[in-house]
Amino acid sequence: MNTQEILEKQRKYLWPNHILYYTEPLPLDHGEGNYVWDVEGRRYLDFFGGILTTSVGHNHPRVVNAVREQVGKLIHSSTLYPNENHVLLAEKMAEITPGRLQQSFFTNSGSEANETAIVAAQTFTDHREVVALRHAYSGRTSLTMSVTAHANWKLGKSFSPDIKHALNPYCYRCPLKMSYPSCGVACAQDIEDVIKTTTSGRIAAFMAEPIQGVGGFITPPPEYFKLAVDIAHHYGGVFICDEVQTGFGRTGEYWFGISHWGVEPEIMTMAKGIANGLPMGNTITVPEVAQAMTGRGLTLSTFGGNPTSTAASLATIEAIEEEAPPAAIALTGDHLRGGLERLWEKYPLIGDVRGKGLMQGIEMVTNRQTKEPAPVAVAQLFEETRARGLLIGKGGLFGNVIRISPPLTVTIEQIDEALAILDHAFGAVHETLGVN
Ligand SMILES: Cc1ncc(COP(=O)(O)O)c(C=O)c1O
């Protein structure tokens, strides 16, 4: 089918609220490594990786072979029967996650992993309320939309009153109008104020992403999480760390983003990059949290931990270990960051560059003094980069943050290729908008 035929069926048979990138949406046909091709045969360098999901590039031979072998053997079993891949992957998760995290519950998406985490925190602590952060994105189920703190991403009418939101450590747009470091990271104190004024005084959890993803790659000051988690513990809560975007080496140096901030969660959730594109979520906890779930009601997951997705995940982790380990991502990430900072020097529409490793964001503003968000310029940059063969992502409460997150296997040459395209695309957008 060609582009028009696909788009016609999309309009007729799929819900119209599917968000599609680009003025004319882009049906993809196949991928190889860090490139994808559309149905008309045009090639694109993929710097969004299917939303930070194709960790080791498209159709990685190791992942393809592991899946092929497994589907010929046993596609599905359900969690009612133990299987080898399931336990091997759980063991691997215990090895690569920080601190005492040890026991996993595999599901099928980040939303499900986060739901599972909140139920576990409530069961373990016997408290109900959860403090999350403004600008968070947690998923598309009712409970995770309650955690999500972007009005745009909250569909429906039924949100949990147990979720409260504290101020976000968003230094570029400080909610307290202060500056780091003289602020003393005052925003962390808001967690205590929220607990004291909007909860029963005892919480089940503080829940946050080490670097907010959909929120626009908002990167907290280094001291933030230590202060936040101490407050959560003081009021009886555990720390749920949502690593759906930041996991598996994405932020460089460590397997999981939270290790940059020097705290150890009691519960961690992950999805996206876990299995290079096969559906999977995981909620890993310290043993006592997992233990608290026994004897409290029945649970299963029909597809969770299935032999095929777990085979893909094991192969993905092996490929990361061999080809793009966290230490290497720190270096490729630095190269990307250096290039983006040079673009910041050149183009006034770029207000801020932030992130870690291969998770880098560019916040676009119409004016660096007023910091007025520039979503129109972002939309134009999307078209300009697409026309030049580069795929990027976007996010932020105002839709004005470019998200750059190529597969971890990206090469320095491909980063340079992407930077050159971005340079031309920014130039074109500045010219169209008459910005000097
Ligand atoms: C940080 C974070 N948590 C949870 C989710 C939900 O994951 P899923 O779309 O797999 O349900 C997302 C999705 O973008 C996410 O970015």
What does this entry look like structurally?
- The chain is α/β, with parallel strands linked by helices and 436 residues long.
- It has two domains: 3-55 and 324-433, Aspartate Aminotransferase, domain 1 (Alpha-Beta Complex); 63-323, Aspartate Aminotransferase, domain 2.
- It contains 13 helices and 15 strands.
- The protein has a seven-stranded mixed β-sheet, with helices on both faces. It has a four-stranded mixed β-sheet with strand order 1-2-3-13.
- Helix 3 packs antiparallel against helix 10.
- The longest helix has 22 residues, at 412-433.
- It is globular and about 65 Å long.
- The chain starts with a helix and ends with a helix.
- The relative contact order is 0.16.
- The mean pLDDT is 97.
- Bound molecules: pyridoxal-5'-phosphate.
Indicate the CATH class of the largest domain: Alpha Beta
Distance between the termini: 43 Å
User: What is the number of independent domains?
Assistant: 2
> How many runs of DSSP E, i.e. beta strands?
15
Mean pLDDT, to the nearest integer, reads: 97
| Number of DSSP helical runs | 13
What are the segments in which pLDDT stays under 50 over at least 5 consecutive residues? none
CATH topology of the largest domain: Aspartate Aminotransferase, domain 2
Short note summarizing the structure:
The chain is α/β, with parallel strands linked by helices.
